[in-house]
Amino acid sequence: xxxxxxxxxxxxxxxxxxxxxxxxxxxxxxxxxxxxxxxxxxxxxxxxxxxxxxxxxxxxxxxxxxxxxxxxxxxxxxxxxxxxxxxxxxxxxxxxxxxxxxxxxxxxxxxxxxxx
Length: 116
Fold this sequence. Notes:
Mean pLDDT: 77
Helix content: under 10%
Strand order of the largest sheet: 6-7-8-9
Shape: globular
Structural class: mainly beta
Distance between the termini: 40 Å
């Protein structure tokens, strides 16, 4: 497991769910915020690694998140407005476009198409 000491105080209450990549964790809290920890290359600090400067999606994760998904390398958070925020290892799910730090897209139409 990853060292959670830097976010331990944020994990003492209100945690609804925890999901993980290979070397990082994301805790979804009751208030719709997400707390991350672990190896930054795998999303542990909310970083998005691109060919340019490292950017962060921490502000996008501070509220309005309803679900967090992960694979071995990256996270995706679904927000109440129907958008999805991704972070972690680029090319492996962490960012959808190399030029888009913290790529954010609306998927509301995808979630309603073909649903009975």
